[in-house]
Design brief:
By secondary structure, the protein is an all-alpha fold. About 75% of the residues lie in helices and about 0% in strands.
Length: about 350
């Protein structure tokens, strides 16, 4: 027995190393898929553009019609999809860990609707016209609705279903408010009719540049709280026993969610289900460790968003379906499936 035990002890660390290698390889594969979908996002549309012309338009702009389409139309659209997708995926993953709610998502819990309502109010009643101003209104709306959902869901006694119901109720109320405001103000309606369903079509390079600092700050905060969120997911008592600073972690996590959702919603409107679907798929690969869930979500969420945008361009050619419609069509059945799962409903 004494002779046999050292090999067992020596072999024990092999499993974590193997798992780490598998996760790393999976993340590299996800990055490869993201690179392919990024190129397709520029190449595919009402006019198909060969990959060589995409490269020429991005790297050697010469002012031809194809270069103008690539550099001035599709490149900003694709970059916005990358940023917004990463923001929504990270926000969803952080919210699910923070609330211990597998149904948490910026769209499902009404946060996107809150940001949208605030932006529409700013446009209608305060004459806001610039994206920089949109962002501040979106932040305020996202923060207020986050607090309202948590309070209506029962704070400490909140369950996934109660939070989802609170978010659904607030979304319905805010959607009614949005419709009423737009009907009373035709100028607002003309400006908001595509934005309110979620769209990447109006992306420009100034738009992308303005939201980069906000999303970068949100990503940094989300990654910084990854380790404490692992403890929070175990419950408050165990988190305290492990030395986690609960108040600090929650404040930082909510600040990250507000920055990510506010910037993404201000730039391209409310897009639902991205932050719900991707973290669930990611956990099948990474397990419950937030230090891996967050990077995977940041990479695979843009894959979903850009893929939905490409589907919308192909399905309604020569026109297009807005990306928010496509993600809703894909995500609705997924959400119903998750709600119906017995284990999840009992959390």
């Amino acid at each position: 027995m004494l002779v046999d035990s050292p090999p067992e002890t020596a072999a024990a660390p092999v499993v974590p190393r193997r798992r780490q290698a598998t996760r790393s390889a999976g993340l590299l594969a996800a990055l490869g898929i993201l690179a392919v979908i990024t190129v397709l996002g520029i190449a595919v549309g009402s006019k198909q553009i060969p990959v060589a012309d995409v490269w020429h338009g991005v790297m050697h702009y010469s002012g031809t019609d194809t270069d103008v389409i690539v550099r001035d139309v599709r490149l900003p659209r694709t970059l916005l999809g990358l940023l917004a997708g990463a923001a929504l995926g990270l926000a969803g993953a952080v919210m699910q860990a923070l609330t211990r709610n597998p149904l948490a998502d910026p769209g499902v819990l009404g946060i996107n609707a809150g940001a949208s309502a605030a932006v529409v109010s700013g446009i209608t009643f305060f004459g806001v016209t610039s994206l920089t101003s949109y962002v501040w209104f979106a932040f305020a709306g996202a923060a207020l609705v986050s607090a309202a959902v948590y309070i209506l869901g029962g704070t400490r006694s909140a369950t996934p279903v109660r939070l989802a119901l609170a978010g659904t109720a607030l979304t319905a109320a805010l959607t009614g408010y949005l419709n009423a405001v737009n009907l009373m103000n035709t100028a607002s309606l003309d400006k908001m009719r595509f934005w309110t369903v979620g769209s990447l079509a109006s992306a420009t390079m100034p738009t992308v540049e303005k939201i980069v600092p906000f999303i970068a700050a949100g990503v940094l905060l989300a990654l910084l709280v990854a380790r404490p969120l692992n403890a929070v997911a175990l419950g408050d008592d165990q988190a305290r026993a492990l030395g986690a600073k609960l108040t600090r972690t929650r404040v930082a996590a909510m600040a990250a969610v507000t920055l990510l959702c506010g910037a993404a919603t201000a730039a391209c409107g409310p897009i639902v289900y991205v932050g719900l679907m991707v973290p669930h798929a990611v956990r099948a690969i990474t397990g419950p460790d937030m230090r891996w869930i967050l990077p995977y979500s940041a990479v695979l969420s843009p894959v979903l968003l850009l893929g939905a945008d490409i589907i919308g361009r192909i399905a309604a050619r020569p026109g297009e379906l807005q990306v928010g419609i496509v993600t809703a069509v894909i995500g609705g059945p997924v959400f119903i499936h998750l709600v119906r799962r017995r284990k999840m409903a009992q959390l």
